[in-house]
Amino acid sequence: MLIDLKIKNYALIEKLEMNPSPVLNIITGETGAGKSIMLGAIGLLLGNRADTKLLFNQEEKCVIEGVFDISSYNLQELFTKEDLDFDNQCILRREISPSGKSRAFVNDTPVTLDVIRKIGENLMDIHSQHDTLQLGDTSYQLNILDIYAGNTSSMGNTTFDIYAGNLSYLRKYNESYRKYKKLESDYKKLTDQLAQAQKEHDYHAFLLNELDEAGLQENEQEELEEELKQLENAEDIKLKLTQAVQSLTESEFNITSALKDTVHTLSQLAAFSNKYEELRSRAESCMIELNDVAGELEDAERNTEADPQRTLEVQERLNLIYTLQRKHQVQSNAELLQLQRELEEKVGSVLNLDTAIANTEKAVKAAEQEVLEKAALLSERRKASFGTFEEELYKLLAELGMPNARIVIQHNEVAPSATGTDDISILFSANKGAQPQTLIKAASGGEFSRLMLSIKYMLADKTALPTIVFDEIDTGISGEVAVKVGKMMQQMAQKHQIIAISHLPQIAAQGNSHYFVYKHDTEDRTISRIKKLDDQERINEIAHMIAGANPSDNAYQSAKELLSL
Prior knowledge:
565 residues, alpha/beta, 6-stranded antiparallel β-sheet, DNA damage, ATP-binding, coiled coil
């Protein structure tokens, strides 16, 4: 529950603080005094977007802080998930600087708006006129019925489940539906890929067949180009190899003979110094190496012959490789081989896609069956609650001055969607003999308010929201009905902290704590302030609500009677 609320430098509020009662808190005040401004500030605290135009003093930052007791709300898992320290007291804070920079904090830890919104929706439920209009939306009505039927945790709170730690029926269905839609999407992608692959298959197969027939080998081009150079220059190569052999071994002053004499001479000197022995050894190594070179040159010379037939074969093979490179716009044999592997994958992928599509189609059918089974269970639970929902809501509306009201839940089965296979609409008529119609057509403003209050009352025991804020939910009612609305709020406040902004004395008298919002004029501007009323001040305020600025003795007496109730 909300323990402490501080608002500083927001709209007409220079500085405001309130410590609401754990049960029913009433806020009253003249029109424009700042009651709705407070709700705007609380909205910022719960993650709404900020606007620097709302700063009271444009040179100072705005700070809104709420302290909540969350000791019994089982929020540890949520805090852990968001990497936040958990404490029985939770402090939410928003700061808006004059430059427009907005910062959010949970227990003094900086967080994003998304995180403070997730935390905040577990702490407070603000009912405004916008929510009353939402009641006409069928998806909102379905959400209400799911909460009533116990299919989900609570309105605006799907983080934790109230059913023995198990996932709620709606969440189980949602998980199966998301899985089904993901598989369905995968199946469509695969079939699209297959259609595209089939269009290209024949062309790719032709290109692949051409490369397969070419029988390309790794490093083949480089080896052939080198061989062709030798074949085309065989006579010149053979002549030069012969000359090299002669220079090494056969000429009058050949190198090997000279080196042999050098080795012999150094052998004679070796006895005089180790240095000469080392030189002899090195010269001998050179002689051995030159003999090896000479031998290889002789082999190369013998094996080098002009071969016109082989030259033609190599030229034709290289021309084939060059032609394929130009065709596929690549520069090397290695790139052709890489292209060949890619074409093999593309051609083979059609067969692989057939298998993948068959497997995915089977998985889609299984997932669809699971969705339909869980949707049927969800639908069964919803339909089972229709009668009790209609009856309970009718009784509450009768107590609130609508004895001839009729509530009918219209149901149609539709294709599976994120919410199941049910399309529902709450039909309503306020007058005897009138055919029930959709809420948008049948309910007036006051009737909408009573409907919403009755529904909130019915859901109070089924939700995990600790603090409920009502912003003038009493619009369009008065007299004895207003007294009953106040009693209803009192009963809700036994399990939920209630903060209600009201303009009716009958409801104001029901509060355990009564706060009065008023304007205070300073020399240069108007300031909105709030004060908690004592017993006498409550009598005075309620008397003013009854009779206006100058209440009579009867008004004061009526105020006392309302408070005594």
